[in-house]
Specification:
isomerase; 2,3-Dihydroxybiphenyl 1,2-Dioxygenase, domain 1; 134 residues; methylmalonyl-CoA epimerase activity; nine-stranded mixed beta sheet; cobalt; MeMalonyl-CoA_epimerase; VOC_core; single chain; binds cobalt (II) ion; globular; alpha+beta
């Protein structure tokens, strides 16, 4: 059911420093910061030949990643995103298998303008999983 790894998202305590490290030390193609107020994050997209990295930084007081950074002050992997062809079919299959879908269970429009859902990390070995319909 799941397809390509669309991105790995990393919460960072200093967006400028992390962007500079990926650009200058790792030699990656790093985009400009984009505010995503609907998701409470500022995102920097890093294009790799086979996938993307997203650097996440809190935007606003009730950002969903502020608590993550409180627990992981030096940053850390926040979630992985897998592509699916039909997000409703994927959701229904996962729910039938007992996996918990976060929020209302209805897809939201994600940072790339595509429908996304998140799956409970406790159901997937401690890893927050995002599904994105491509
Ligand atoms: Co994501």
């Amino acid at each position: 059911m799941i397809g390509r790894l669309n991105h790995v998202a990393i919460a960072v305590p200093d967006l400028a420093a992390a962007s500079a490290q990926y650009a200058d030390v790792l030699g990656a193609t790093v985009g400009a910061p984009q505010d995503e107020p609907d998701h409470g994050v500022t995102v920097v997209f890093i294009e790799l030949p086979n996938t993307k990295i997203e650097l996440l930084y809190p935007l606003g007081d009730d950002s969903p990643i502020r608590g993550f950074l409180d627990k992981n002050p030096s940053g850390g992997i926040h979630h992985m995103c897998f592509e699916v062809e039909d997000i409703i079919a994927a959701r229904d299959r996962l729910k039938a298998e007992g996996a918990r879908v976060l929020g209302s269970g209805d897809p939201k429009i994600g940072a790339h303008g595509k429908p996304v859902l998140f799956l409970h990390p406790k159901d997937f070995n401690g890893t927050l999983i995002e599904l994105e319909q491509i």
